Amino acid sequence: MGLMLDTNVFIFSERSGSPIDFSEWEEYGDVYISSVTVSELLVGVHCANSEARKARRSAFVEFILGKVPVLVFDAEVARVHAGLFTTLTKQGEMIGAHDLIIAATALFHDCAVLTDNTNEFERVAGLETISYIQSSKKTLQP
Asked: What is the pTM of this model?
């Protein structure tokens, strides 16, 4: 098992200046991010409203990429994604496109998802979702 971190966990860390203490979730094993999270973090770099903020965000993202392994969206994950898409559409419970890719990646790699967006991820059958916002520990030691 592993722990897939949703983008909003990193956004909280960057905005608050607080590193993430993963000890609370040690039982999940290794920590990962999806390739979609990499893209979302890089969008934040490109959208920065000043050169100073862009430089800070870029350094933050590069730090994450140097510490946290990235799980890619490949053909095998795409198969899981297609099944989830079909199931959630039929149930009228579709989630955001990026969250669906993150969920498919997490399911394929047997990871729980740590997120502040539990409303969407909890719609995915078989996916363990952990609410980051309810966590009392917010201190990046992957």
From this structure: 0.89
